[in-house]
Amino acid sequence: MLVDCLYRAVVEVDVSGFVACTTEADRAAIRDSLGIVVDATPTGSYGPARSGAGPVSHEAVLTARTTHPKDTCQQLAERLGCSTSTIKRHLRRARAEAAQADVQVAPSPRRVPTVDDVLDAFDTLDAARLA
């Protein structure tokens, strides 16, 4: 189950936060090493419904992420008094904006990595030594 979760978080879906013993930075490093580009379009909402005291600005979310880069989305949500879905939505938006700013020539069709490819790339991470 953990292997499937890791594979999907690296190859299929751009997930925010800590997933399958990896951080967002770890998964980005794996994708870079395998030449994977994952579409960052949102596929749905996540987390509990908002019951906070008003909207959270995009800038507040990005500032919180910059200030506390190792926090999970849940921890950032607790800091800002919003839902995890709000945090994830703002982070996806920021990634999409960054990707559009770095528009490159469309890569040639690529081979989809196997589970073994992803696990081999994971083994090169520092996080793999702790898992």
Please write out the topology:
Elements: H1 2-12, H2 24-34, H3 58-67, H4 73-80, H5 84-101, H6 115-123, H7 126-130
Helix pairs in contact: 2-6, 4-5
Q: Provide mean pLDDT, rounded.
A: 79
Compressed to H and E, one letter per element, the order equals: HHHHHHH
Low-confidence stretches: 42-51
Quaternary organisation: single chain
Tell me the β content: under 5%
Q: Quickly count the helices.
A: 7
What structural class results from the helix and strand content? Answer: mainly alpha
Rg, Å, rounded: 16 Å
Distance between the termini: 15 Å
InterPro entries: WH-like_DNA-bd_sf (IPR036388)
In brief:
With 131 residues, the chain is mainly α.
Structure explained in plain terms:
Helices cover 55% and strands 0% of the residues. It has 131 residues and is mostly helical. The protein has two domains: 1-37 and 108-131, no CATH class; 51-106, Orthogonal Bundle (Arc Repressor Mutant, subunit A), CATH 1.10.10. Helix 2 packs across helix 6 (115-123) and helix 4 (73-80) packs across helix 5. The longest helix is centred in the C-terminal third of the chain and has 18 residues, at 84-101. The two termini are 15 Å apart. The model is unreliable at 42-51 (pLDDT under 50).
